[in-house]
Structure prediction request, 692 residues.
Amino acid sequence: MVRPIFTVIVTAFLLFGCGSEKETNDGRKIVNIGHVGPLTGPISHLGKDNERGASLAVDEANQLALVIEGEPIEFRLISQDDEANPQKATVVAQKLVDSAVVGVVGHLNSGTTIPASTIYYDSNVPQVSPSATAIDYTHQGYETAFRVMANDEQQGQVLGDYAVKTLEARNIAIIDDRSAYGKGLADEFERAVIKAGGNILTREFTDITKTDFTAILTTIKGLKPDLIFYGGMDSQAGPMMKQIKNLALAVEFLAGDGVQTKQFMVLSGAEGEGAYASSPGLPLDQMAGGKEFREKFKQVYREDIQLYAPFAYDAAFVMINAIMRANSLDPKTYAPFLRDTDFQGVTGRIRFDDRGDLEGGSISIYRVTNGEWAYIETISGSD
Amino acid sequence: MDIFAQQVLNGLVLGSVYALVALGYTMVYGILGLINFAHGEVVMIGAMVALAVVLFLTSVSPGLSPFLVIIFAGILAILVCMALAFFIERLAYRPLRNAPRLAPLITAIGISILLQNLAMIIWGRKYKTVPEIFPKETFELYGASITTVQIFIIAISAAIMAGLLVIVHFTKLGRAMRATSESQRVAGLMGINVNKIISVTFMIGAALAAIAGILVAANYSVAHYSMGFMLGLKAFTAAVLGGIGNLGGAVLGGLLLGLIESIGAGYIGDLTGGFLGSHYQDVFAFVVLIIVLVFRPTGIMGERVSERA
Prediction:
């Protein structure tokens, strides 16, 4: 039994806790920036990682004592949880719009970013996604939609080419998790493989709640492929890799950026050895401000970067940068400045094309060697 | 042919776990007519507690024999789950025993959400890796690969299910359970402590759930706070398929559902000429369920019983 007084306190906290203030104690105007990612659920570690990246950018911007239209301001990050669930994503997007944020950093997944982008577009709130890579996101004609990462079109093409030409795989099986990201990437991969002269044996499907893949892997085993491509996230890829080894399937394993994580190594253990995965952009150590960022992040949060934190950091800074150049908090005024961004971020030089896609995004390939993601090469995306 | 053997084997492994969990649903339904939707979460708690114990023991004394570690982890997980089930029944179901049937169903869902969030707070949100305590070996069987863990799953499930059937049909406790399920009032008049029997039923179900949780975690080498939800739903389906309230039915339903899922996912593409793919795996399983229920509304082994008052 919960004591009534406790309930009252919790309710009061919930009602008044979420930043309805207008000014800080020292009289600076509070400017809210939204952040959305999955803070609960199977990929909450990535959501938290993005939140930290964005939060770091906001804290750093605030140390500069920024002034807009003659008024000293302080940025605040309002972070929301979309549970990687498209329905929840639209709910929290509306919530952010209602609490008058000047812009949104997010969402993390493509499946959540796309439905939410309609709400931001209708309310004229600019949105910079750190990590939504599905092609559709920027192809809806919304001038509020931006991203700071190469999209799946570029990534899928590079991976398909790499599988056929570099890994010399002739017969390929594809599995995807039926999310906007996984399916989109797998579609592009399939197209690129066929173009490069490879042969697609089968396409199998799973979803983000599953940990048992033995049935589809057994079917795949019967087809004797050289390579299995997985369009999806690390939480599935880890156990999948173990089951591939349990079934004595002798294949190469290739996946996209959702798998190129520490968590994949933790989940797949010794069986993860030899897996390939790509990641948009350069490896952290080769990024312009990568090493510095890694240390700064570790110092503040006492934990390593998971995956997209540098992109979330850049996304937040690109937005703050546009606001400062426009000298306006009005999205209508600063949105054109966002489109004209030419910003040297941690992840590299950021410029947007007419759709809001990152110009000249590159893709890097990694392979698990001795329990670490070893960098192999970077292939620049062609537009 | 080796592919078919492999799919059957996959299905048996999956089905054994469904059957273990389904027994918990069916036992409680048999006695109370209540669907204990928090049962899947008990499976998860079992896996998480066992994992925590294993991690603790292997870090404190790395030299400890793996056999001792697993026994200790298993016993502790079972005890925690039994205590949990006892309190769930006491707090969420017993006060509502004479309430409309919808009320305990809602508290069951509430408990399920509560346990999931509690586990998330205690163990975090990440998928956790389960260490391999025993060295894993893969064997060849009629052209299919099977790991030691999978052999273990099938063997232990079979042994436990046999043991449960013996308890229910050949012991005094079992007789009391069967009497209670027929009529609580009459059983009470015959000197059976009905509340105690109901508590014991919940606790036996929880013990099976804890074991199922450990087996699942060991097989897939992952455990996480939301792992019980879908498993619980599938096991419930298995219990309905076999005839809810019937122990043999739960076992049959579990094995059947495992086989249907695995063979369905494997062959649905070939059967439909590539028109439907493996994303119809779950659809296939539920279509079979619907067909069975259309022709046998009480499930495969369920008996026609008059609706409870």
